[in-house]
Amino acid sequence: MKSNDSASPRVMIVDDEPNIVTAIDFLMQQQGFQTASAYNGAEALRMMEAFQPDLLILDVMMPVMDGYEVASSMRKEDKWAGTKIIFLTAKGAEKDKSQGYGAGADVYLTKPFDNKALVEKVRDSLDLDW
Amino acid sequence: MSTLVVVVASLGYLVLLFGVAYFGDKRALQGRSITNNPFVYALSLAVYCTAWTYYGSVGRATETGLEFITIYLGPTLMAPLWYILLRKMIVIAKSQRINSIADFISARYGKSAFLGSAVTIISIIGIIPYISLQLKAVSFSFDILTQQGGPQAFFEGTSFYQDTAFYITIILAAFTILFGTRHLEVAEKHEGIVAAIAFESIVKLVAFVSVGLFVCFGVFDSPIDLFQQADKIEELRNLFVIDQNHGSQPWTWAWLTLISMSAILFLPRQFHVAVIENKHPNHVNKAIWLFPLYLFVINLFVMPIALGGMMEFSGQNVDADTYVLSLPLAYGNEYLALLVFIGGLSASTSMVIVATNALSIMASSNLLVPLLLRTSAIQGDFVRDVSGRLRSLRRLIIIVILILAYVYFISIGQGTSLVSIGLISFVAVAQFIPSMIGGLFWKDGNMVGAIMGLLAGFMIWAFTLPFASLVQAGIIESELIEKGLWGIDGLRPFALFGMEGMDKVSHSAFWSLLVNAALYVIGSLYGKPSVIGHTQANLFVNIYKYTGGQTESAFFRGKAQFVDIRLMLNRFLGYEHSNDLLNRYARNHNLELEKIKEASPHMVLYAEKLLSGVIGAASARLLVGSVVKEEPINLYEVMNILDETQQLMRYSQELERKSEELRKATLDLQSANERLKEMDALKDEFITTVTHELRTPITSIRSFSNILYDNPALEDEKRAEFLAIIIQESQRISRLINQVLDLEKMESGHADWNLTQLDVGLVVQESVRRLQSLINEQEIKLHLDLPNHLPLIRGDKDRLMQVVINLLSNAIKFCKPDRGVVNVRMVYTDEDLILKVSDNGEGISPEVQPYIFDKFTQFTDHRSGRRQGSGLGLSITWRIVRYHRGSIEVESSPGEGATFTVTLPLSETRRLPMKTPSFNRTP
Amino acid sequence: MRQKTSAKLIGVFLLFATLFNYPILQIWGSEGSLLGIPHLLFSIFALWLAMILCLVFVVERRIVKSGKSKISSQ
């Protein structure tokens, strides 16, 4: 397991919509989590090395590198094995969901989302690990 | 006259008639139809004039004066309305391959098999008295002519007299079978029968007019002499007076007119000749005046003959129904009498042939075939040729109907006059008025209403007319007439609910139609139609919008194995005929029959229509349903398809007008159909993308509203920031919706274009002015290079400004962040105006360039790696430019910025349409 | 064009439906005769013929007109 310097969990938000990032960021900080945000998949992978997130909230449709790609490339590396992935996307069809889980998602949520539900899922995912 | 002569003459006439029919069929096969013209059509409608008209009118006139004429005024009044009603019925029947009025009603109300059989039963029961009156007329005229018992002995009912009627029944049955059941595919029409009927219409007219002339000029000196002599007798004079004490009641007059208005369209045989056998809807136009003219002429001599007969036979016991024949005989004019007899024979035979034929089609399609299908006698492989079986079924039905008519005649028809027998049938048929008229014009009329109305109306009719007359004739012993049903005074058959003083016919018509119409409306308002009921209602009521044929397959999503379809058609249409039709279909659709495995929905539908020509809509549906896997389709989808298709229909109707371009039109229609399919696919994709694009701002709005709601204590700064985001995202939604609507309008050709002569330079300046604040904000250098005198072009100012603003704001958005430069340049040549907008940003990568004018191609901002805009702006721009007959191109290489070039032709724009043609394809 | 024809034909229908029914019918039903033919008989047949002529006029003129416009559009 990776070492956590700080007690509070680290959540990384990846979405190409700045307003949505702002909203989730606010929600996560309210929970006392540490946050970081990226606007596309490639950026996210770059930033993860430094930030070492416990959990990723990941959009699917993004330029440069989409969410599926991010998730599957993470799942190839052992060092991210303990990092949870929550997909948060406007794509709600069954086949999108199964593709998401196939890529390594732990939770699949559709937009528009309910704040409380999102927070709950995030907490659940993190709690289970502890 | 000797029996032999009359028999030979009659048989000779029937053979001649058969020759006419044979000739008509032969010409039809050669493709030189003799019935394909409005005159034959109008004459065939005159099958309305039966023995009732021929013998009965005179009889009626002796009792009630001119009241008989309502039976002909009704249809005359109806004739102008044919232009609306009948034409619509014809177009519907053709497009749905309807084969009888029962089929029509059943098809309208969701192809309901129950309704089809109800209408069939009502028709058969209703028409039997009518057929029996023809039998009666032929047999008494035969007896009088051969003087078996003579006119006076007419009522005595001797045994040989009955035999005459019986033999006549048999001969008529044989004749009808010979005529009607040779071909099976009803929708392909019986040209021979139509030819024969038109011929009979001429014969009966000539014969009747001859008697009229004989009475006016042979028996009397002139018509004036006749009227003068009649005027001396008070009883006769009063026939022409209408006041308090004389003439028919206003009620009676109006009701008789109304029920004969309905009879001319809804009697099964009238429906058959007017709708099913119609060759072209335009033939109706001439019939609108020709048919009333026919009625006018055939009625001209009714009164003179009636008066002549009353004076001639006054004091003798001669039935007034026989005057037409008795008068020439009384004056020893045997040849004229023979002609009259032949005329009467033609009036009767034409009615019997068409009516039994129409009823047999109805009964086999709506009663027997469904029954057979359910008992699966046909589905088994052992029955190989169903078409043969169907044909024998129809023959059987014809025989049964005629036997029933004969039984009716010998049991109650003898003592009553021809007209009163016929009126019973008219009231029965009038029961179709609410469901037919409602079905044609009221989309919400549905199956529940139709069934309730028809059944209730029919029961009231049955109780007040035929049942009551059975009682009156003493066949059923009962005190019903005086005391009412179950002794309830309000249920007396001739005075329902205590309504007295009306004659029987008006009374029955009034109550049955009142209840029928009321229940039809109530049932329709409270009953719920099925999806197919809804579709059919729309197709019937809005038929003119949908004619063109393509529509229906859109509703139908079934697929079937081709072998099943082929087998089914082989069985019902016969092997050769069905293979011919399938080959023709394959040729028209560029298919190879051998290679087809799965029949397309369109083909399945084609098969269903072919089948409904033979066995009716409801049965065909049942049958096809047994081999087809139909995918459910919901109402919403149906309505969507309808709306889209309307567009293409409008397009195709315009083409139709130019007949010389027919070939081209077919090709266009084919491609239009292709486009419809493409549009469908594109539309799906479009909707998915739009909903995705809508979700994004909605997500933000929802999330921030929740945050604001859950955190009342939020600091003001945050609160303001979040509210600003909500506002911004709401604006984004409305912008997106506007753009989608705009695009939809342009694509569908609904956009209105406001064309004026305009200076594009001014448009550019105005656009720059509007964006000035944005330009200042981003500190962008804008170079504007406009020539002094630009040629004017014709175009839509607002939309061209939209083009310039779109291009400019894109340039601003994507130019270099700090040292942004945007160039706008206009030049012109003899032919074109050229506008160039360029920026110094990252440029557009070559892979993306081909797609940038497609819907929802979004640019990625290289600075942030994020996408920008809705992806609709350039798509709209492209369409506006294309509308102005111009072109738009982009040049760009990465790192060098991008240049958009719009070229607008100067000359072309003068001929722009005010509505857009649709551009569905992006380059 | 078609709308107009429909309207005219409905007009013809309404006019004659009124003329051929009570109470107007009673006007024709008085005693006496015209040209040796009883009033009622004469009027009904005259009206009938008038109605047919109206129909000829409306329907056939429409055909003539549309025929003409076809030629001019070519």
Task: Describe the secondary-structure layout.
The complex is a heterotrimer of chains A (130), B (923) and C (74).
Chain A: E1 10-14, H1 18-30, E2 34-38, H2 41-51, E3 55-58, H3 67-75, E4 84-89, H4 94-103, E5 107-110, H5 115-129
Parallel strand pairs in A: 1-2, 1-3, 3-4, 4-5
Helix pairs in contact in A: 2-3, 3-4
Chain B: H1 3-29, H2 38-45, H3 51-64, H4 70-82, H5 85-96, H6 101-108, H7 113-145, H8 159-180, H9 191-219, H10 223-231, H11 234-237, H12 250-266, H13 268-276, H14 283-299, H15 302-312, H16 323-330, H17 334-374, H18 386-413, H19 418-430, H20 433-441, H21 447-472, H22 480-483, E1 491-492, E2 495-496, H23 504-526, H24 531-541, H25 543-546, H26 551-555, E3 559-561, H27 562-573, H28 575-588, E4 598-599, H29 601-615, H30 617-627, E5 628-629, H31 635-657, H32 662-710, H33 716-748, E6 755-758, H34 760-777, E7 781-785, E8 793-796, H35 797-814, E9 821-828, E10 832-839, E11 859-861, E12 866-868, H36 873-883, E13 887-892, E14 898-905
Parallel strand pairs in B: 7-9
Antiparallel strand pairs in B: 1-2, 3-4, 3-5, 6-8, 9-10, 10-14, 11-12, 13-14
Chain C: H1 2-19, H2 24-28, E1 33-34, E2 37-38, H3 39-73
Antiparallel strand pairs in C: 1-2
Helix pairs in contact in C: 1-3
What does this structure look like?
The complex is a heterotrimer of chains A (130), B (923) and C (74). Chain A is an alpha/beta fold and 130 residues long. In chain A, 45% of the residues lie in helices and 18% in strands. Chain A has five helices and five strands; from the N terminus they run βαβαβαβαβα. A five-stranded parallel beta sheet of chain A has the order 2-1-3-4-5, with helices on both faces. In chain A, strand 3, helix 3 and strand 4 form a beta-alpha-beta unit. Chain A is globular. Chain B folds into five domains: 3-415, Sodium/glucose cotransporter (Up-down Bundle); 432-529, no CATH class; 548-648, no CATH class; 659-748, Helix Hairpins; 755-911, Heat Shock Protein 90 (2-Layer Sandwich). In chain B, helix 7 (113-145) packs antiparallel against helix 17, helix 16 (323-330) packs antiparallel against helix 17 and helix 18 packs across helix 27. The radius of gyration of chain B is 37 Å and the shape is elongated. Chain C has one domain (2-66). Helix content of chain C is 78%, strand content 5%. Chain C is built from three helices and two strands; from the N terminus they run ααββα. In chain C, a hairpin with a 2-residue loop joins strand 1 and strand 2 (37-38). Chains in contact: A-B, B-C.
